[in-house]
Design goal:
By secondary structure, the protein is mainly β. It contains no helices and 16 strands. Helix content is 0%, strand content 49%.
Length: 187
């Protein structure tokens, strides 16, 4: 669980649902109350509304996808990542949700100094701010992108470049999402 940003709710990951059906139970994707797939089960307790349960379906693309619960730059939202599948949900309105536009998610980096949270997939990065997507990089790698450093100004990473059979690097500006290095695709 990562609480890098201020938030207006608490949560607890549960091994199993409480009996008696006392809380509304939503299944993601879809925010359905009729059931869904296996995933991470959490109880969310918003500051000014009723607690609820959420089951967030595991991603199916890779077993290497990360899992976790993250606060978001918007203090009323939370993000659950379940084996690479990400969901952003309004804590006080569990029917208001969206999938994270990165799949599978292989790394998550909250960066409070820039009021963003960055999601990494195999080939690019995408940053969410308070109002949603702040920036999205162009393709940085062919595959297997890895973040190596986060500074006040940028995210640095590396990847295996199949063209020259060597490790190559990239740097992404945290304000704009513009990058140096990485693969250079023809225009």
């Amino acid at each position: 669980m990562n609480t890098a940003f201020p938030h207006s709710y608490t949560w607890e990951e549960l091994a199993e649902g409480p009996g008696s059906g006392s809380l509304h139970h939503y299944y993601y994707p879809g925010a359905s109350m009729k059931g869904g797939r296996d995933g991470i089960l959490i109880e969310v307790r918003p500051e000014f509304s009723r607690p609820w349960l959420g089951t967030f379906a595991f991603g199916e693309i890779t077993p290497k996808g990360v899992s976790g619960v993250f606060t978001m730059p918007n203090p009323h939202q939370l993000c659950v990542v379940a084996r690479g599948a990400g969901y952003v949900v309004a804590a006080d309105d569990p029917t208001s949700w969206q999938p994270v536009r990165a799949s599978p998610i292989i790394d998550v980096r909250p960066i409070p100094a820039h009021d963003i949270i960055v999601f990494a997939e195999y080939i690019r990065l995408i940053a969410y701010g308070r109002a949603g997507i702040r920036w999205e990089t162009k393709r940085l790698s062919w595959d297997s992108l890895r973040i190596t450093e986060v500074s006040d100004a940028c995210i640095k990473g590396e990847f295996w470049d199949i063209r020259c059979e060597s490790m190559e690097t990239f740097s992404v500006d945290l304000t704009t999402g513009m990058h140096q290095g990485g693969i250079q695709e023809p225009l």
